[in-house]
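User: tokens in, sequence out, please.
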């Protein structure tokens, strides 16, 4: 169990009030084609239209808003493969606060460019040989910066939960909800939102097949770490959940599912061709799991969180070409 306090639905409500008028209330879209194919009603919460291109803005802004003025004045540090880096950079700029973000050398160039564009100082590291946590800890110790972690913080989790809160408010109670999963911040926040608004909803985290630490953790009843995963879902390449996100998932989640890269590319192609929107590989995890038929959805009301749309344009074209047309 984590030493951090566990947030609850009230924390999600507080985050929602902080984010009002700042974060976009993103659209909820449907697809007649997919509804017919699965025999279900699917509702896509499209966080690819969120500020900074992903749900991460919600948690970052809420976390920075929760800090003292003194902490913001001293500056911030964050580590991320991309979306959290962009989100913290934008949220920090809105608070007129300086931030350093630690990003892997192989992070998508577009995500690095966005973080720089929002005014962040970017430090790169080799994810195979260096520890981003250790680098951040050194900056906290040497420069007095405050760490804004990607998922292991109550304010981050509560902020991420506002996406599901909006979804439930717009479409009502759901039977099943799929959410992309890396370190478990979005899953944890979604679980808390459901406790307040749709407690009977079965919620599944979805991670890349190559990095199923969350699935193993829930199955074994203990926190499991894996080697750095190799997947096109760059926003979900964590090696482990945190004690805090694991404890929330262990208590409330229906389970963790996995999908492979081919399924992600096929889903990217469907979103582009049929729903006319750009979704990054990580953002396709939930939708790909829904179509994988790992869970029987016939006759059910189903939510899918589309977590982001930040993808390198050159790679995007390559992924679309490799995606298979859905036989719907």
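Assistant: Sequence out:
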């Amino acid at each position: 169990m984590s030493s951090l306090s566990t947030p609850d639905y009230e924390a999600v409500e507080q985050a929602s009030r902080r984010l009002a008028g700042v974060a976009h209330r993103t659209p909820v879209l449907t697809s007649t084609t997919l509804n017919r194919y699965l025999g279900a009603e699917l509702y896509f919460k499209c966080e690819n239209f969120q500020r900074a291109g992903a749900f991460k803005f919600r948690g970052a802004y809420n976390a920075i808003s929760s800090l003292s003025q003194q902490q913001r004045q001293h500056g911030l540090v964050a580590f991320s493969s991309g979306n959290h880096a962009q989100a913290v950079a934008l949220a920090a700029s809105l608070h007129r606060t300086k931030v350093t973000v630690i990003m892997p050398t192989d992070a998508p160039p577009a995500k690095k460019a966005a973080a720089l564009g929002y005014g962040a100082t970017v430090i790169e590291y080799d994810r195979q040989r260096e520890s981003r946590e250790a680098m951040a800890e050194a900056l906290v110790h040497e420069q007095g910066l405050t760490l804004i972690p990607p998922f292991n913080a109550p304010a981050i989790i509560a902020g991420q939960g506002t996406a599901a809160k909006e979804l439930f408010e717009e479409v009502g109670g759901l039977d099943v909800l799929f959410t992309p999963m890396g370190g478990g911040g979005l899953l944890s926040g979604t679980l808390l939102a459901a406790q307040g608004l749709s407690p009977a909803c079965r919620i599944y985290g979805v991670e890349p097949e190559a990095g199923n630490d969350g699935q193993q953790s829930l199955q074994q009843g203990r926190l499991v770490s894996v080697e750095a995963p190799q997947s096109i879902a760059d926003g979900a390449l964590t090696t482990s959940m945190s004690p805090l996100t694991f404890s929330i998932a262990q208590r409330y989640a229906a389970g963790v599912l996995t999908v492979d890269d081919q399924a992600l590319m096929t889903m990217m192609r469907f979103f582009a061709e049929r729903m006319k929107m750009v979704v990054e590989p990580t953002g396709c995890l939930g939708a790909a799991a829904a179509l994988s038929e790992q869970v029987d959805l016939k006759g059910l009301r189903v939510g899918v969180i589309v977590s982001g749309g930040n993808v390198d344009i050159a790679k995007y074209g390559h992924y679309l070409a490799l995606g298979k047309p859905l036989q719907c």
